[in-house]
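Task: complex structure prediction.
Instruction: return structure tokens for all chains below.
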Amino acid sequence: MPRTRLCSCWGGQVLPLLLAYVCYLLLGATIFQLLEKQAEAQSRDQFQFEKLRFLENYTCLDQQAVEQFVQVIMEAWVKGVNPKGNSTNPSNWDFGSSFFFAGTVVTTIGYGNLAPSTEAGQVFCVFYALVGIPLNVLFLNHLGTGLHAHLTTLERWEDQPRRSQLLQTLGLALFLALGTLLVLIFPPMVFSHVEGWSFSEGFYFAFITLSTIGFGDYVVGTDPSKHYISVYRSLAAIWILLGLAWLALVLPLGPLLLHRCSQLWLLS
Amino acid sequence: MPRTRLCSCWGGQVLPLLLAYVCYLLLGATIFQLLEKQAEAQSRDQFQFEKLRFLENYTCLDQQAVEQFVQVIMEAWVKGVNPKGNSTNPSNWDFGSSFFFAGTVVTTIGYGNLAPSTEAGQVFCVFYALVGIPLNVLFLNHLGTGLHAHLTTLERWEDQPRRSQLLQTLGLALFLALGTLLVLIFPPMVFSHVEGWSFSEGFYFAFITLSTIGFGDYVVGTDPSKHYISVYRSLAAIWILLGLAWLALVLPLGPLLLHRCSQLWLLS
Ligand SMILES: [K+]
Ligand SMILES: [K+]
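Output:
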């Protein structure tokens, strides 16, 4: 009875996986709550205190007026207007920012600090993503697997003398280390410096970006109080593409390198 | 010379793809700019007008005080405090919300309306995602390919009589249509109704969620002026997992159905 066998086998693999998945989510929920709840309560108290101080300092204001103003500010924020500063802020939808936005759509990073607010923009965004996401996957996969095939099949590693194997493995490891330094370590340090973030915040930003989670809590080139050079956002967009391509290349190479190192280890 | 042949072949495929990719981004940048820039300018003018009216109505306020208050509100917002309403708002980090957040991390949706603000939370988030994202991919892939294999290999479609082929294809099409209705059409309509969104906004939310872009401009269960039933957010999280699993199942089935329909068409 191949039908029932496959069924029960599939069920037998899916159910433990489902259980592991749900447990992992529950574990995450518990720990995130432990870590964040107190900080949130402090931020809340701080904000209530600031609001009360504002009401005390400016006696013409009442509670209702302040709430109304908060409402106005939040509505502006939701519609993509930065309420800080004056109206001479650069537009969020100039060409560089639109390009950056298009990049966050096709890579599915979707920071959300910029999002279409008009119905036409939203409809276009859906169809743009429908074509753009597969195109992005195709491009990154092609880049990764192409270079991977080039590195693995052409060298005929198994047939070569021991000394050459060692040199090639060292070369590959150096190539990976140097690339990782240039793509994953150096740029976050530059971003931290330019944006005034701590190094850990810079690496958090890089991880959240290149994992395509893209919370949007840290986004380069969005601080209205800073004057960025004009190509800064475009450079950031190019870094994102380079980083994703690098990960598409490196992630399949990892097992290969481990395999080779273990073989060299066993032979020695 | 196999080395140069593979090299030029790989380069010959990657370069047009790179060109198509960059052109697609430039096209997107142009159209998003056209669609959004005017609406943004209007929102800006509207906000400046509201700010001026506020300054006129409350004469004890000066420009500086208002800017300072905006600063306070934006800082609270960035730290995850909703400035609207009072401090009796439910916490953003209660268990249901933390569970929802953990789900947005492992699926890489990352709405960002909730994000860790403490350094410990950020560090944990990185390691949580490092394990959780592969687990999520494994789970969804397994669900999709398992059911796909079950539907395709066991039926021995090619060997069966014509009438049975027709019935099975109809059955598969009906199964896909019904599932899509239940997972992709019906829930967005319910969300639109509960959240007070238009239908097009509901579908935009569903698309942005299930494509894992997750801008966070529309998120269910986050309006502080609404009273949701207690399991609403958990139901939404389950819908997201169901929807992603459904897409992982349906996307590989599409080509199969097309193939079968074309075969039935050619035979008739
Ligand atoms: K995302
Ligand atoms: K996101």
